[in-house]
Amino acid sequence: PEVEPEPEVEPEPEVEPEPFEIVCTVSCPSNMKAFIWYGSTGESIGSPAVMQTTKQELCLRGQPWIDFNCACKYPKLWSCFDPTEAEVLCSHNFEIEIPGLIDSVGEGEAWFTEFMCFE
């Protein structure tokens, strides 16, 4: 008996992985402005500050972390600052380090705990 050839199966197209998105919000008291710094030049400022970035951009520093701070608005911006005033919320698990592991005299740091930059 003749064996029918297997039908050719088209290979699945290579699909780019969905960008791994990280969102954080830093809120400060009303007399202060919130700041977030991330990646190589990323910055978000506001009341609150909202950061929306990818794992790829966040990992430009080599490790998954952001800096944050609350700066006094009066008498002028940055006349005082206090990262302990910040309320930090992120879309991925993190640990707060105050003083920071990288900068122990300035801002606070949020270190992401559920992913690494280089697996």
Task: Give the gist of this structure.
The protein has 119 residues and is mainly beta. It has one domain (21-112). It has one helix at residues 55-58, and strands at 21-27, 32-38, 42-46, 49-54, 65-72, 87-90, 94-97, 108-112.
Give a structural overview:
With about 120 residues, this protein is mainly beta. It has one domain. Helix content is about 5%, strand content about 40%. The chain contains 1 helix and 8 strands, in the order ββββαββββ. The protein has a 5-stranded antiparallel sheet, with no helix packed on it. The mean pLDDT is about 90.
Give short descriptive properties of this protein.
3-stranded antiparallel sheet, elongated, 5-stranded antiparallel sheet, 119 residues, 3% helix, mainly beta, 1 helix
Principal-axes geometry comes out as elongated
Cross-sheet strand order for the largest sheet: 3-2-5-8-7
Radius of gyration: 21 Å
Helix content: under 10%
Percent strand: 35-45%
Q: For the residues shown, what is the average pLDDT? A: 90
Alpha plus pi helix count: 1
Written as H for each helix and E for each strand, in order along the chain, the element string is: EEEEHEEEE
Low-pLDDT stretches are none
Task: Draw up the topology in text.
Layout: E1 21-27, E2 32-38, E3 42-46, E4 49-54, H1 55-58, E5 65-72, E6 87-90, E7 94-97, E8 108-112
